[in-house]
Backbone:
């Protein structure tokens, strides 16, 4: 698979630090997809992090803290419902990263699965939390579960 952009040591450090700080801050989160090579490499164009509803303000403070720790000063946030697209960059360091912070899985105002239902299928992978591919959506959508 061809990389969309160059992934540097600063990307590795930013991603590792962010995920560690989310955990240290007590934020329940998981990476939705394309996590297999993180933090050493990102095969996607962004990182999709699903967070527990009502934890965005604390997550925002953690993102800003990580930026300060790594001396990164510019960011832009674009919001779509309960998803915020963070574009974090530093021209002097030739650094840019796109992180989607998603308060649950919501599309056009419709919540497909509750955070709790999805979080039951989270596992630790390479030091961070991910939605288990074997059990994740498949388990949440199986006919054995009760209604959302």
Residues:
């Amino acid at each position: 698979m061809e990389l969309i952009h160059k992934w540097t040591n600063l990307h590795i450090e930013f991603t590792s630090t962010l995920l560690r700080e989310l955990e240290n801050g007590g934020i329940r989160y998981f990476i939705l997809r394309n996590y297999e090579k993180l933090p050493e490499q990102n095969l996607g164009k962004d990182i999709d992090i699903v967070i527990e509803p009502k934890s965005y303000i604390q997550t925002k403070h953690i993102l800003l803290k990580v930026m300060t720790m790594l001396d990164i000063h510019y960011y832009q946030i674009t919001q779509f419902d309960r998803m915020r697209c963070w574009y974090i960059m530093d021209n002097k360091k030739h650094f840019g990263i796109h992180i989607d912070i998603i308060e649950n899985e919501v599309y056009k105002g419709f919540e497909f699965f509750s955070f709790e239902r999805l979080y039951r299928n989270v596992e630790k992978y390479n030091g961070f939390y991910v939605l288990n591919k074997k059990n994740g959506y498949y388990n949440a959508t199986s006919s054995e579960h009760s209604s959302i």
Observations:
- The longest strand covers residues 95-103.
